[in-house]
Amino acid sequence: MAPLFPQLPVLSSNPGYTEAHAAYALVRNYYASKAFSSGNTQTVSVQCWLARMEAKKAKPTPIHDIYMAMNNVPVNIGVRDLKELVRILLLPQIISWVRGYDLSTVDFTLRKEHWIELVAQHPDVNAIAEDFFVTKANPRGLQTRTFSNKHPAKLYLGIDNPTYNTILAHFDELDSPLVDDDEEPPMSSRTSRTKVSSYYANWAEPLLTHLQTSGNPGLTTSPEAAHIKNALMLQVQPKLKAAKSVCSDFLIYILPGASWKTLIQNPRIFSDVTKGLPTHDVIFYNTKAQPVSGGFKSALPGRSKNALFPDSSPSKAVCLKQGFHLQSGDKVMYEGVSQVKFLCSELNLLGWGDTMMDLVYVFMERSESELGRPPFEIPVMRFVSAGLAISQSNQQEAFMVEEWIDPETQGPFVKYIHNNSGRPRDFERADHQIRAEFLSFCQHVQYFKTNGAAYISDFQGGLELLTDPQIISDP
Ligand SMILES: Nc1ncnc2c1ncn2[C@@H]1O[C@H](COP(=O)(O)OP(=O)(O)O)[C@@H](O)[C@H]1O
Ligand SMILES: [Mg+2]
């Protein structure tokens, strides 16, 4: 018998989403390629569900609509290979569903109709073959076996009821932290701003021309739609109990940091975060909470299960943002790929903002080594760490996720310098006034260090953490 899959990927005992998805993609591509290969191996289609058998029920109950189908499976496949194939096909969806539950403790079974368990024989072949051969007597009374693959094999990857209940208990535990709305970080009051009309204007192009990064094809702020669609379609028909919908499972693409030198060598570094490897985490948020909106985005408080930006902060408080446009005065959220494109463009700006601030601090360090320390305190300010979060369990919604600017430690959310004027705003609070002036100084350094190509505007945020920058290019 030809081997089913020469190198059936070997997964670790409790694989993460990325690992499981890579194995799944490998297996899928392998079988897709078999569709066109010649050879006389008889093949069949299999359909598989994650399921359990409830007491007093005649049929298995599918779990969370976790389902996959596969063509071109050799009819003589043995139980062990078939079970592993089914497990690999369903695993990415299972991992999304269990939200961190340790799958190495789960004893899956492979079952067919009527919940009959398939158990390996020696030799381990023909696990399902008998369902595809019809035995007929020909006119001379001889029996013939005819192969027919008109109908797919229906299989279940089974979970026993105690395990299923333990997984549900794990969800309850995860869902509990947000039961009390008061625990959420409060949002600061609404701010507004006038923004340049050319919001999507490709500001990076003139900037790069100016910097004479020859050979560079130019920046684009729009990510590759196909890649994003792929990320969005990783899960089929997600179904979250509509009940609270305060907890969702996310794939998170973290925006990388880059020094000015790295950015100039690789100007596309921030333009498509989905090119990086995502992490996987659970974020709690309350869809009933009133979001705070600026002119372009609405922002909600949330909390992640693990610290998403451990290099910047151990905090698990996050801000979830989505872009909207106005239709007859009403805010209409961008949907699907448009939302992702919008957020990628915002993340690109944040990435550039962060690097341009770094440029200023590097400049100050160099100057200090020549001129000595200035006789006053220099504010320490930086842009928030951020990423693109794609929900795996709630209609594949996309959010920008960033560090929460907590008014308790960061003071009220303020706008230090507007987009339409280089003049820092006047503040009553001395700590705000010093920062507004410092940020104005930053603009000068940025203008100077980029040979007049660009600087950051629309400085806003807290005492240390900034967000939502704009870039003024070719000023
Ligand atoms: N990281 C954050 N933490 C807390 N609140 C935030 C954060 N980012 C934004 N906000 C609040 O949400 C509002 C809208 O977000 P912002 O990114 O400024 O969107 P816009 O593009 O519409 O100006 C801000 O004015 C501020 O009040
Ligand atoms: Mg804003």
TrEMBL record:
Gene3D superfamilies: MHCK/EF2 kinase. Keywords: Kinase, Serine/threonine-protein kinase, Transferase. The keyword Kinase applies. SUPFAM superfamilies: Protein kinase-like (PK-like). One of its GO terms (molecular function) is ATP binding. The keyword Membrane does not apply. Residues 366-473 form the Alpha-type protein kinase domain. It comes from the Eukaryota. This is Alpha-type protein kinase domain-containing protein. It comes from Roridomyces roridus.
